[in-house]
Amino acid sequence: MSRSFAPRVAEQAVHWLLASQDDDFGPRQQAALAHWLDADPEHRRAWEHIQQVNRRFRTVASPVLHATLQAPPSPARRHALKALLLAGVVTGCGLGLQTHPSMPHLLADYRSPLGQRRRLTLDDGSLLQLNTASAADVQVTAQARHVRLLEGEAQLDVRAGSRPLSLETAGGRLQLEHGRFNVRRFLGYSHVSVLDGVAVLHGQGLQAGQQARLLDERWQAVAPLDPNVGAWVDGMLVASHMRLADFLDELSRYRPGRLGCSERIAGLRVSGSYPLDDSERILRMLSVALPVRVRRFTRYWVQVEPA
User: Fold this and answer.
1) Rounded CA gap, 266 and 199, in Å?
2) Angstrom distance (rounded) from CA 168 to CA 231
3) Is 75 in a helix, a strand, or coil?
4) According to CATH, where is 3.55.50.30 located in the chain?
5) According to the model, what pLDDT value does residue 206 have?
6) Does domain 235-306 have CATH number 3.55.50.30?
7) What is the model's pTM?
8) By C-alpha distance, which of 297, 109, 294 is closest to 305?
9) Confidence band (pLDDT; 50, 70, 90) for 106?
10) DSSP characters for 176-213?
11) How much is the CA Rg of the chain, to the nearest whole Å?
12) Where is pLDDT greater, at 29 or 88?
C-alpha cells in the first residue's frame, strides 16, 4: 500500500479525512473537498490511499491504535490520530515506523508544527531555528557536530568549534565553520543562503552575501543574497514586488487548508512586511492594498478573486 506523496499533500489528505468525520461536515465542506480533489490528480490518489489506511487501521491489533480510535473526541485525540494517519500515508499501515526509510520527518529529534516556529540552542552553543512544518535530527557531541534537515526550512547560527558543523539536506552535505545560514529544503534539492560565514561543498565555498541551489552535490544558480531571506525568524513575510500567486503560495505554508487566487489577478504585485502569526490579518491587508476580495468557502478553503 506504500505510496509517495508530497508532505503537504499528505497532510491535506489527512485534514480532509478528519474533517469529513466531523458532525458539522455539511454541503459547503463537501463542495470544498470536491474542489480539492479535482485540483490535482495527486490529491485524489492521496485521498483514496488515506481512506485505505484508515480502514486498515481499524483491523490492526495494536493497543496504541485501539486507544486512539476509541478515545472520546478531543484536540489531543485529533492530534494523535493525525500523526498516525500521516504515518500510514507513507507506510501503508502506520506500524513499523522505526525502520521505514520514508518516515524520518515524523520521528525527527525536533519538529515545528504548521504555522509555528521553534528556536533551539544546541549543546555547543549554536542556534537552530525551525520554520513552519519543519523537522531536523541533531547530533552534537565532543566528537561530531551534525544536523540533518529532514523537512521544511531552518536557520543555523553556527558557533565556532574544533570541527565544522556538518549539515545534511536535500542535494548534498555542507560543512559550516561558523556563521549564519538559511536552508530551505525542496523535493530533491535545497536552497542555501549564507548571511555570514562560508558554506563548503566538496571544497567549493558559498560566501557570505550569496545564495544558491544545492542539487546533485553541486552549487547551481549562484546569486547575490535576497535581503528578505530569513525574515521568518522575526515572524515576518517580506515581499518586494512579488507576484500575488507566489505571495499566497508562501503564506499558505503557515496555515492549514487551501489558499489560492484567480488567474486573472495572479500577476498583481505585492510589497510590504506582513506578520506571519496572523494570516487573516494579512488577507485583510491585501484586500485593502489591491483590487481583490477574499472569498471564504470554508475555514480551510480561501480564494482571492478580483474585486
Assistant:
1) 35
2) 23
3) helix
4) 235-306
5) 96
6) yes
7) 0.71
8) 294
9) low
10) EEEEEEEEEE-SS-EEEEEEEEEEEETTEEEETTEEEE
11) 21
12) 29
The single-letter code of the amino acid at 167 is L
**Phi/psi-derived region of residue 156, left when phi > 0, alpha when psi is between -120 and 50, beta in every other case:** beta
Per-residue pLDDT tens over the stretch 138-177: 998 878 899 999 989 999 999 987 788 999 999 999 999 8
Do 159 and 124 meet the contact criterion of CB atoms below 8 Å apart?
yes
Give ranges for CATH 2.60.120.1440 in the chain. 110-224
Q: Which CATH class is domain 110-224?
A: mainly beta
Q: Which residue has the cell 557570505?
A: 208
Is residue 62 within 8 A of residue 95, CB to CB? The reply is yes
CB 305 within 8 A of CB 262: yes
The helix/strand/coil state of 126 is coil
What are the grid coordinates assigned to 200, written together? Answer: 563548503
Q: Please say if the pLDDT value at position 192 is more than 90.
A: yes
Q: Which residue has the cell 478553503?
A: 301
DSSP label of 72: P
Confidence grade of residue 132 (pLDDT, cut at 50, 70, 90): very high
> Using an 8 Å Cβ cutoff, are 133 and 184 in contact?
no
